[in-house]
Specification:
Strand order of the largest sheet: 1-2
Shape: elongated
Helix content: 55-70%
Radius of gyration: 41 Å
Structural class: mainly alpha
Number of strands: 2
Amino acid sequence: MIVLFDFCSIPWWLTWLLPFLLGLGIGWLLWGKYKAITEELESKIIGLNTRISELEADLDACKKQRMEAEGNISLLRGRLRELEAASALTVGAKSVEKASFSSQTGVVTDKYFAAIGIDKLQVIEGIGPKMEEILKENGINNFAVLSSTSQEDLRAILNKYGDKYRIIDPNTWPQQAGLANDRNWKELITLQKALDTGRSDTPTQGETDSKLEKFLIKIGVIRRWTQDDLKAVEGIGPKIEELLHNAGIKTWKALSETAVSSIQSILDAAGPKFKLADPETWPKQSELAAEGKWDEFQTYQDFLIAGKEK
């Protein structure tokens, strides 16, 4: 009998090699499948992390937009209060009887009241934006109400908002508000200069700044100049000031004592580009500045155009 294949003739080591190779092949196939699954999962994780980062970025953007929106709301609320104050100003304008200078018409105005109104509580020394908001939340909406609110009631309001408000001294607020309500601006500025950030327990010798005065300077209602700055005179700019200096006129007093004809001669000698300058009011303006009569100085300037009387 012919035997085509004899298992007995197979080497012994081959009988061990074949199962090993078979197991190795199956293991390779399983490892390849696991690797593919792992790579797929890692790819999903990367995608999820990317999505999380995008969502976090969107959340930050939303937070910023919310903060901007809240800021805009606060601004709109402030604008609304300003409009309400302006409306009250329009209604009460007929009763304003604060005299100001006008060389021709005698117009009656109160620029401070026009800028401040009846409820800009922040001009009170010791009251900031947050404090003004707190007061208005508690029904203290204008100077009249604040002036009639007792120190005890103000202290009770502050105590409701935590320890950081307990150190605030509201004792002078009604007095300041009373002056503002009565439009005694000069007295209010003088009082504020004697206060240390509004505190009643640390008075000064009138050496501190007035919050009302700083506010009015900031918005351009009143101006302050360095001593003998000739540019303070309406109609005088840097070039004309240089001409006057070269002619020996370097102080307000000197300019106030210079005849208009002499000033005109200085301008004429400087050439045709200064022919539009009119020095008619310069000595009078300089006299007011030299004497420190700033209220009269500014009131007078309000009725000038390029240094000329209207």
